[in-house]
Amino acid sequence: MLTLDLHDARPLHEQVASAIRRAIGEGSYRPGDRLPPAKDLAGALGINTNTVLRALRDLRDEGLLEFRRGRGVSVAGRADGRALLAQRARELLQEAKKYGYSRDDLIDILEDLT
């Protein structure tokens, strides 16, 4: 199941979209799989249904989800590796900023790892 970080400063719809994108990228949801109804996701996450719907629309616009009348929302395709890494990099940059590190500091840290 999807989870949200209550300490994350990003809007909730972005967090929901990231969690679903990550689940698709990691293979928890595969092409053709149906997602639970937005109302059920919202209830499980403790957020408003409209917030989940906004996240689902964003993912539909990215081409990851398909909306089918009467059949719900299903996974259209798999998140490409670059998109998944870019999402994780954004999350890492936000985490670094929480601790007072800049983008350049983070780049230095990553370069030290290689």
TrEMBL record:
Keywords: DNA-binding, Transcription, Transcription regulation. Residues 10-78 form the HTH gntR-type domain. Coiled coil: none annotated. PROSITE patterns: HTH_GNTR (PS50949). InterPro entries: Tscrpt_reg_HTH_GntR, WH-like_DNA-bd_sf, WH_DNA-bd_sf. It comes from the Bacteria. This is GntR family transcriptional regulator. It comes from Nonomuraea maheshkhaliensis.
